[in-house]
Design goal:
The complex is a heterodimer. Chain A is built from nine helices and 17 strands. By secondary structure, chain A is of the alpha/beta class. In chain B, helix 2 packs across helix 5 (about 190-200) and helix 3 packs across helix 4 (about 130-140). Classes of the chains: A alpha/beta, B alpha/beta. At the A-B interface, helix 2, helix 5, strand 6, strand 8 and strand 9 of A face helix 1, helix 4, strand 7, strand 8 and strand 9 of B.
Chain lengths: ~350, ~260
């Protein structure tokens, strides 16, 4: 009855408790970033604990991988750390999977099946969403992406809460298959250590052969020069400077570059001649629908707010706590953009090196 | 040969978006439009088709009204349009959608070969962006996401993409599924001549039976998840914090943990 991990013989869970698999996957180019973010692993394991006995799988490819250590995941209650080394395409940033689905997804699906887990939990970054989909595809599992939280359901399976349409609707999503794969937005979720924690035992695995010859071949790689920003229209990330910049867009540019985003400006900034009219965001300029909008020194006048209404996530930095933009912001920071933006950009850059 | 662009009709951002009583996304809104990211994919396809000696087919799955999204694709320069529409497809999840689109791509391939399958970066309503990898898995094709450029020469697909501050060029033996990054094309206005030309192209309609699919494997009954309960509510997770000297660090942490760092 009790499923066990094949190499290490660790039982997947105790009686009456389902097993839950937390997947940590950092493609080679992102390993340092993920490694520098131990809080995410702690939050995922904490969330998973509510659903059952937690196993963490750490996927590592040729170029490195997530650096969650056994002590850390043990502190948050993980029962075991499965160290899976995969070759080939699993090491690539984001998918670029070869024929089929990629060795990483196959390894995770095999482990999930071997442990008899009911839920596979991942973070919600793009490469994690893609891995989640491929794992669900292999397992025939239900998939919920970008959940805000997960709760135990009436049976061993979870219920996920997901927001859609710019957060104006919340849906409780149940899974119609024996297994669920859920990607979780961990921002705002707690990381709670367990008492009497011990380091999780580490179980090494070797994944099957990498995907065949029909995968991608890297033929060229170059560093992108700073300042080579994407155009505003259609950008995934937009950082907008307003009157609060006083004409110095340095911090705005810096954060945009750290995020690989575009730079925009408000009507005030354009009227003052601080920014090019082509960068005007709002009703009379460019309407944007990025995944992330950051307004710095932006008051949030209605003709500007209408232009950013479609942004999935709105962050605002303004010294005036009464600024109208805070009514639209998912994260509002009452502060000086000249302090906050460079500090955030530096933190993001640190994760890249 | 054919470049297939999978597109989606989505509710307009300005419209009153929401769910039906049984927890499906409302798709009946008469202001539904072609997903903006998919316009980029169509423009990329139209741009590279002459060099590749290929024609562009826009493909979608949806209610009959989704033909509007295809019409827009034709106005942007696509040559043919295929709509997979069937009452049994209502309530399809992303796995169903991938199954159906893959079957349609296989049929197009059987009709004369497919060089490349393009998609947009993500749909504006779901934003999960996992359709491309699932479609590739169904078709057993290599898949690349986030491509800023794509080309196909002599059966070899080449993509250029940004990854973690680097510019990379990859090649694979085609056909392949490539998701195009947003904003990689110029937003050229559509001419009246193009609108007239698009009107002359018929939208080919296929059903689930035409694709040889078992109706029980698609649509609402096959959906792997259910929306048990929905509620319209003010956006939660609103956080207002006063800078105590660490707000920049907390902002970076927020962006990372919410998956907002590309």
């Amino acid at each position: 009855m009790t499923a066990r991990c094949t190499p290490c013989r660790i039982p997947s869970a105790g009686p009456g408790r389902p097993a839950v698999l937390v997947v940590r996957h950092a493609p080679d180019a992102l390993d340092a970033r993920s490694g520098a973010d131990p809080q995410e692993a702690a939050r995922l394991v904490t969330a998973a604990r509510a659903l059952g006995e937690v196993h963490v799988v750490r996927l590592t490819g040729a170029g490195g991988g997530a650096s969650d250590d056994a002590e850390r995941v043990g502190r948050y209650g993980a029962r075991a750390l499965h160290d899976v080394r995969v070759g080939g395409d699993a090491a690539h940033p984001r998918t670029l999977a070869g024929a089929g689905a990629g060795a990483g997804a196959a390894a995770v699906a095999d482990l999930a099946a071997a442990l008899g887990v009911t839920t596979v939990l991942l973070g919600a970054r793009p490469h994690e969403q893609e891995l989640a989909a491929l794992v669900a595809h292999r397992l025939g599992a239900g998939l919920v992406t970008g959940a805000e939280r997960v709760e135990p359901g009436p049976d061993a399976r979870p219920v996920a809460v997901r927001r859609s349409f710019a957060g104006t609707w919340a849906a409780r999503v149940t899974v119609e298959r024996p297994r669920a794969v859920v990607t979780l937005r961990t921002g705002g979720l707690p990381a709670v250590p367990v008492p009497d924690a011990a380091p999780a035992p580490v179980c090494p695995h070797v994944a099957g052969p990498p995907a065949g010859d029909r995968g991608w071949r890297l033929v060229e790689r170059a560093e992108i020069a700073t300042g080579d920003r994407p155009p505003l229209v259609g950008a995934d990330v937009v950082v907008v400077g307003g009157g609060g910049t006083g004409g110095d867009f340095g911090p705005v540019d810096e954060l945009a570059d750290a995020l690989g985003g575009a730079v925009g400006a408000t009507g005030v900034a354009v009227a003052e001649g601080w920014a090019d009219a082509a960068t005007l965001v709002g009703q009379s300029g460019v309407t944007v629908s990025p995944r992330l909008y950051v307004g710095a020194g932006v008051s949030g006048a209605v003709h500007h707010s209408n232009g950013v209404a479609a942004a999935a996530t709105v962050v605002a930095v303004n010294p005036d706590p009464q600024a109208p933009i805070f009514a639209h912001a998912h994260l509002g920071i009452v502060g000086d953009l000249f302090d906050v933006l460079p500090q955030a950009a530096a933190a993001l850059r640190r994760l890249r090196t | 040969m054919t470049i297939v662009v999978c597109v989606k009709q989505v509710p307009d951002d300005a419209s009153d978006r929401g769910y039906t009583a049984d927890g499906r996304v409302r798709r009946d809104a008469d202001d539904a439009t072609l997903n903006a990211a998919d316009e980029d994919a169509v423009r990329v396809a139209v741009g590279l088709a002459p060099g590749a000696g290929a024609e562009v087919t826009v493909l979608t799955m949806g209610p009959p009204s989704a033909a509007r999204a295809l019409r827009r694709g034709l106005q942007l320069g696509a040559h043919r349009a295929v709509l997979v529409t069937d009452a049994v497809l209502a309530g399809s999840d992303v796995f169903s959608t991938a199954t159906v689109l893959a079957a349609a791509v296989r049929r197009l391939a059987a009709d004369g070969g497919v060089d490349l399958v393009l998609t947009g970066a993500a749909s504006r309503d779901a934003r999960t962006a996992v359709l491309p990898v699932l479609l590739a898995a169904e078709l057993d094709m290599p898949c690349a996401t986030g491509a800023t450029e794509a080309a196909v020469t002599g059966g070899v697909v080449r993509v250029r993409r940004r990854a973690a501050g680097r510019l990379e060029v990859h090649e694979a033996d085609g056909p392949a599924v490539v998701a195009v990054a947003t904003a990689v094309t110029d937003d050229q206005p559509v001419t009246t001549a193009a609108i007239r030309a698009a009107r002359a192209v018929p939208v080919v309609t296929w059903t689930v039976a035409d694709l040889g699919l078992d109706p029980l494997t698609v649509g609402h009954p096959a959906a792997r998840t259910r929306v048990a309960e929905v509620g319209s509510c003010p956006p939660a997770g609103r956080v207002l914090l006063v800078d105590d000297g660490t707000a920049g660090e907390r902002l970076a942490d927020y962006l990372i943990t919410n998956g907002l760092v590309p």
